Amino acid sequence: MSRFLETIRIEEGIPALVEYHQERMDQTRFSVLHLRTPLSLIKHIHVPGNCRHGVFKCRIIYDSHIRKIEYLPYRKREIKTLVAVHANRLSYDFKYEDRSDLNVYASRLQAGSEILFIRDNLITDTRYTNVAFFNGRNWFTPAKPLLKGTRLSCLLDQGILSPMDLPATPGNTLHKFTHIRLFNAMIPWEESITLSTNQIRWNNLFIKK
């Protein structure tokens, strides 16, 4: 049986976006495992005393039941370059514990670089984050991400982001947008990793059909 993952930000002992994590877990258990029985996340989150100051990552592994919960120190990765990778066969509709299908693309990455996945000639996500592009006035996010993250769902609900098909044409994308932001459940919008679109490498070195 496949196992799934929710990663929840714990800041000063308080879990963030729990309702969004709960919704995704419910959808995953129903869509993949055909289970309707409620499984409450908040009842299983008991932040240890030594994790109540600062930012920690609550990592929850589950299938029909919650199998493991661990609390880990969190430090945001430093990313300076994105490498566009064509991966038309890649599918990650649900947040699986097994990330091997994503990580196989990273074997040739240099330090400080991350993958920007392209599927069917549309920009999607990186391995660990959703993305958004800035045109000088507004922020747009791919209408067809690999995985709809909890932070992404929240930002869409708040009207901070607008969904849009983003063709992976370097001249087109770089002409319209000045910056790209990387964010996820662990990285709030205000702390997003922000890069110039000039820091995206568009080449054929990593293409996998």
Q: How many individual domains? A: 2
The CATH topology label of the largest domain is D-amino Acid Aminotransferase, Chain A, domain 2
* Whole-angstrom Rg: 17 Å
Instruction: Kindly report the spatial arrangement of strands forming the biggest sheet.
Output: 10-9-8-11-12
CATH architecture assignment of the largest domain: Alpha-Beta Barrel
Largest sheet: 5 strands, mixed
The N- and C-terminal alpha carbons lie at a distance of 28 Å
| Helix segment tally | 4
Question: Structural class of the secondary structure composition?
Answer: alpha+beta
Strand content: 25-35%
CATH top level assignment of the largest domain: Alpha Beta
**What is the global morphology?**
globular
Instruction: Enumerate the spans where pLDDT stays under 50 for 5 or more consecutive residues.
Output: 205-209
Q: Can you describe this structure?
A:
By secondary structure, this protein is α+β, with helices and mostly antiparallel strands. Helices cover 17% and strands 31% of the residues. It has four helices and 13 strands. The strands form three sheets. The chain has a five-stranded mixed sheet with strand order 10-9-8-11-12, covered by helices on one side. Strands 2-1-3-4 form a four-stranded antiparallel sheet. The chain starts with a strand and ends in an 8-residue tail after the last strand. The model is unreliable at 205-209 (pLDDT under 50).
